Write a sequence for this structure.
């Protein structure tokens, strides 16, 4: 029983961070139709920035945020302006190819600079744990969970109560009508892209303490994120949050209950099982 | 040309446009004076929607020029045209179905020209269409066709239209609702002196409301004149039926 609760706790805590990363991907998809297969690699870039900040200046990853988030937002703006903007409205496979290509480029560049050995970024609270009964709460996961919850609340508030948020929802429903209403669709897409990647950079700092990072870890993160987005119904924002949590829990169950490599496929099994019964995502209707 | 150049709100000269190399509009020239209600008639596929899309910037012009209130705007992005007051209420209304009526109206008032007093503007359209006021917190997708058309026109008014381009406002509405909508259009034109370009399939309705009309056929202006003249001209009906 304790093991079950432990797996659930672990899953929800990690899943909350997956959820905000996936929300970023879902926001970008919903305004531009682009699925960014380099999404995970961008997280890895943010993580390696944390590594550099630590090795050069002994800066904790939580403080490195002050640099990684703005840097990634600028990178996102450049990527959108020069690369992805041209892909909007083109056949879906072209964006897949382009962003996959981008993913491999990022991996190779990181490999050139940092080498292929797994590396760790320590943090002050990395080893911090709290015990509630027999259940272990890892400090870094609790922080990640708290930040992710706050971030989700802020994102939902933004979507519902600000002009930018309303524009995002309007563009998701009908980009042409949005333009006719006087919405600057192009700028809203750029801002959404910057927002999604900024959130992702923040999530990078949340995930990185104590984790072993490798230049090639990006694709796995992309796939995990994509699973959450698809489970959520692609552009159903509440669904995506639930999708992230579900994937987190599946991963935790896989690693706690199923030994070795077999445990790693558990999230995918859950994914397939859910989609068999709910092909339009957990919350039912996709837009 | 009934009115001299500098008095016209909209001046379109030799406009050609199309989609992916297939030209739909050929050498179209029209003008609309301040405060006019001008009709644009034609059969299906005559190019009416392409022309209006070209005026709102959704479709790019291949050649020719568009001037609004004396300023060139041929290559302006759609949202910048809305800022200047060129507002297109599209065919099929294209409301945001998953947003409330209030959110639809708020979004219409997002451009910098009107943003500051958009709540006052929303109040004003509610006086014009009390039904819209009753539906403010409902999702736009749950409204009836007529109510949706009212919201669509309301959005145009909230955006600060100086030229309101209505594409098929009677489409799919009951006769009673068509009458309500057209009464509102007439009031906007007569009382608020709003300049309106009305694109319609419904020949009788358009001729009854517009002071002048242009008739499009195969992407060209084939006839133009006062509604009274065009009503008598047998060529109008012929062009309209696309024969």
């Amino acid at each position: 029983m304790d093991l079950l609760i432990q797996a659930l706790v672990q899953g929800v805590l990690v899943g909350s961070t997956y959820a905000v990363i996936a929300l970023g991907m879902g926001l970008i998809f919903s305004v531009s139709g682009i699925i960014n297969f380099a999404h995970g690699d961008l997280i890895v870039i943010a993580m390696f920035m944390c590594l550099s900040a630590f090795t050069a200046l002994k800066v904790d990853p939580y403080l490195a945020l002050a640099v990684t988030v703005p840097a990634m937002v600028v990178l996102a703006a450049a990527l959108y302006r020069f690369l992805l903007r041209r892909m909007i409205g083109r056949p879906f496979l072209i964006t897949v190819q382009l962003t996959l290509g981008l993913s491999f480029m990022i991996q190779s560049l990181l490999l050139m600079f940092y080498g292929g050995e797994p590396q760790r970024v320590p943090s002050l609270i990395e080893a911090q744990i709290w015990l509630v009964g027999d259940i272990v709460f890892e400090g870094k996961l609790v922080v990640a969970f708290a930040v992710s919850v706050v971030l989700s609340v802020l994102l939902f508030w933004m979507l519902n109560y600000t002009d930018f948020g309303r524009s995002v929802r309007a563009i998701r429903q009908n980009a042409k009508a949005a333009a006719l209403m006087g919405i600057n669709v192009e700028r809203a897409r750029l801002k959404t892209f910057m927002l999604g990647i900024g959130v992702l950079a923040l999530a990078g700092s949340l995930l990185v303490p104590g984790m072993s990072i490798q230049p090639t870890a990006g694709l796995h993160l992309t796939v995990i994120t994509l699973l959450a987005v698809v489970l959520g119904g692609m552009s159903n924002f509440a669904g995506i949050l639930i999708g992230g949590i579900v994937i987190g829990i599946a991963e935790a169950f896989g690693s706690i209950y199923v030994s070795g490599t077999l445990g790693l496929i558990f999230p995918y099994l859950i994914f397939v099982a859910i989609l068999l019964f709910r092909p339009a995502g957990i919350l039912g209707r996709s837009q | 040309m009934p009115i001299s150049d500098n008095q016209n709100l909209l001046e379109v000269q030799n406009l050609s446009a199309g989609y992916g190399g297939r030209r739909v509009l050929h050498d179209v020239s029209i003008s609309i004076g301040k405060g006019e209600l001008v009709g644009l008639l034609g059969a299906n596929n005559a190019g009416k929607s392409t022309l209006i899309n070209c005026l709102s910037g959704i479709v790019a012009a291949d050649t020719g020029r568009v001037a609004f209130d004396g300023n060139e705007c041929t290559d302006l992005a759609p949202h910048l045209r809305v800022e200047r007051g060129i507002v297109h209420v599209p065919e099929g209304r294209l409301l945001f179905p998953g947003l409330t009526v209030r959110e639809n109206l708020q979004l219409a008032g997002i451009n910098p020209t009107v943003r500051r007093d958009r709540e006052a503007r929303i109040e004003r359209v509610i006086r014009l269409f009390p039904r819209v006021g009753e539906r403010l917190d409902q999702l736009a997708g749950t409204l009836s066709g007529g109510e949706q058309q009212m919201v669509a026109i309301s959005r145009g008014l909230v955006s600060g239209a100086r030229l309101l381009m209505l594409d098929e406002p009677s489409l799919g509405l009951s006769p009673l609702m068509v009458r309500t909508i057209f009464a509102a259009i007439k009031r906007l034109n007569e009382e608020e002196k709003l300049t309106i370009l009305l694109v319609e399939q419904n020949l009788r309705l358009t001729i009854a409301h517009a002071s002048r009309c242009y008739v499009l056929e195969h992407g060209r202006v084939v006839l133009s004149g006062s509604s009274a003249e065009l009503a008598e001209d047998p060529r109008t009906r012929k062009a309209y039926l696309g024969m």
